Amino acid sequence: MSAVLPYSIAAAALVALGLFGLVVQAAVLRKILAFNLLGGGVFLLFGVVARRGAGAGATADPVPQAIVITGLVVAFAATALAVVLALRMHQITGAATIAEAAEDGFPDK
Amino acid sequence: MSGTTPGGWLLVLALALPVGGMLLAFALGGRTAERIALGVLGLGTVLAGMIAAEVYAAGAPLAYRLGGWAPPLGLRLQADGLAAAMLLTAALVLLAVALFGRAAQATPPGVQEARAPFTFWTFLLALAASLAAAFLGGDLFNLFVALEMLTFAALSLACLDGRPSQFRSELRYLFFALIGSVLYLLGTALLYGAHGTLDIALLAERAGADLPTLLAAALMTAGLLAKMALFPLHLWLPPAHAGAPPAASALLSGLVVKAAFVLLLRLWIWVLPPVPAGAGAPLLAGLGAAAILVGSLIALRQERLKLLVAYSTVAQIGYLFLMLPLVLAGDPEAAARAWLGGILQAASHAFAKAAMFLSAGLVAGALGHDRVAELGGAGRAMPMAVIAFGLAGLSLMGIPPSGGFTAKWLLLTAALGTGQWWWAAVILGGGLLTGGYVYRVLAGSLTAPPAAAPRPEPPAQGPERVALALALVSVALGLVPLASFGLVQIGRPILGGAP
């Protein structure tokens, strides 16, 4: 169990850092990076789960690893979509942040 | 659990049809994409009807084991009453939105294919596929993938116009959705670590009130609430839904948030044991009640029509959460009523809100603006759109006879039946506030136009008829005798009994 402990702590730290960055950072690019950090933490946790759940004779449970691969594809697609949207927003409006209120009278509390 | 049932192939077809259609439409493009989308969505409606009939006739959920592998290693598709009802609702709304979109997203013969229609038709099919996956999935990780596909498809539809003002609100939507899905994924990691499976039926047997399960449920619930924009996580929804083109707004408000709600029900009613779920449910219902009151009050003060409709979505989402403490209260009769009430609310809101956004889009398109104070003359120029808005409003308010009335009545009686009268007060108060903002729009559009105003261009008849048809369906749901809604009870776990 102690062999996976450093990885569990690293996963928790990555999740915490990523979540903090995603909420606190205003710049879109930083938010996207923070999302990837957060995702990395979750995938590492799946790795820990795979190692802990290893059956007799196997070094790791393959199901969480399959989940991580699928999750990576999804996170990659999400990152690509976010980057494209951020780029278009920067090209059209010159803005690199989503911090301000939208223009159509939306009450931003 | 059960293996593949007779008719299980219908579930595979319900998923494969829109995916195959999307790929074909993507490859062929142009006018063919529109034909494929209309054909596939039409067939999808027939298929959803067949699945619902099959579930109703069998009185038991349909299931299909992919590749014949049994859970926990294999994956399962399953359609219980909840899935069948939501699938049918989604199929009808998608078909209506596709018919509505024919006017704006047509590619006339001989014209080079443009980006917006091509995106509209392919992503409409992508949305249909991801909704089917979210309703039919029997495995928490597959549901995660469905939820992500749903976000991507919905976001692409919302950004269809490419207007500068859209990017900020749609990016904000994307970030909320991404936080939501990562939290959900974190929860599935904990559940898999604790129980070694993500199959919903197996988890229901294995999960207890242990720490990993509760922590996972809390994380997944928080993630799903962010996706559903439950108060106080609602700030992203109104600009994102109001800024999108009308067809996309109708789908976002009517269907996309409902998929996350179905996942929430899977988690709270199926996976979680009744005791911790019953303890947590009043908290969620409290947030729902706050959403009803705050959303309606803000809607009452909106100056723009589309934002008003979007805030009304925030409020109507709140009603869905009121069913949780009533279903989990332990009274089987009240639970059945609240369950039907909640699902009927989801379905009638899908029809009514789609009708509202479509008719609001028609009104805004014809007048050239959507300021609520200057809607004068809209009723004369486009009576069908204004009537559609009014009928949909009746359903949202809960005035009989309408689907919204039956839904709210069932929730109300379940609340009184289990002695939780405070939810009944919220339901009644929310109905009054809804009446207030619907009246503002109707009264505005029925007044005479200012003399100096230019005569609004009357819109094409087809889209107006679609909006009216959707509104009529949301009203007609209230005329169906209650006994014929037995479908939605099929496959629901009964408290204290085996699922």
Please describe the topology of this protein.
The complex is a heterodimer of chains A (109) and B (499).
Chain A: H1 5-24, H2 28-52, H3 62-93
Chain B: H1 9-28, H2 30-58, E1 62-65, E2 76-79, H3 81-104, H4 115-136, H5 140-158, H6 164-195, H7 200-206, H8 211-228, H9 237-243, H10 246-271, H11 274-300, H12 305-327, H13 332-367, H14 378-381, H15 383-397, H16 403-417, H17 421-446, H18 461-476
Antiparallel strand pairs in B: 1-2
Helix pairs in contact in B: 1-2, 1-4, 2-3, 2-4, 3-4, 3-10, 3-13, 3-18, 4-5, 5-6, 5-10, 6-8, 6-9, 7-10, 8-10, 9-10, 9-12, 10-12, 10-13, 11-12, 11-17, 12-13, 12-16, 12-17, 13-15, 13-16, 13-18, 15-17, 15-18, 16-17
Describe the structure in your own words:
The complex is a heterodimer of chains A (109) and B (499). Chain A is mainly alpha-helical. Chain A has a single domain, classed as Helix Hairpins, CATH 1.10.287.3510. Chain A is built from 3 helices and no strands. Chain A has helices spanning 5-24, 28-52, 62-93. The radius of gyration of chain A is 18 Å and the shape is elongated. The N and C termini of chain A lie far apart (46 Å). Mean pLDDT of chain A is 83; it is low at 101-109. In chain B, helix 2 packs antiparallel against helix 3 (81-104) and helix 13 (332-367) runs antiparallel to helix 16 (403-417). Chain B has helices at residues 9-28, 30-58, 81-104, 115-136, 140-158, 164-195, 200-206, 211-228, 237-243, 246-271, 274-300, 305-327, 332-367, 378-381, 383-397, 403-417, 421-446, 461-476, and strands at 62-65, 76-79. Chain B has one domain (9-489). Chain B starts with 8 loop residues before the first helix and ends in a 23-residue tail after the last helix. Helices cover 73% and strands 2% of the residues of chain B. Chain B is an all-alpha fold and 499 residues long. The longest helix of chain B is centred in the C-terminal third of the chain and has 36 residues, at 332-367. Chain B is globular, with a radius of gyration of 22 Å. Chain B has a two-stranded antiparallel sheet with strand order 1-2.
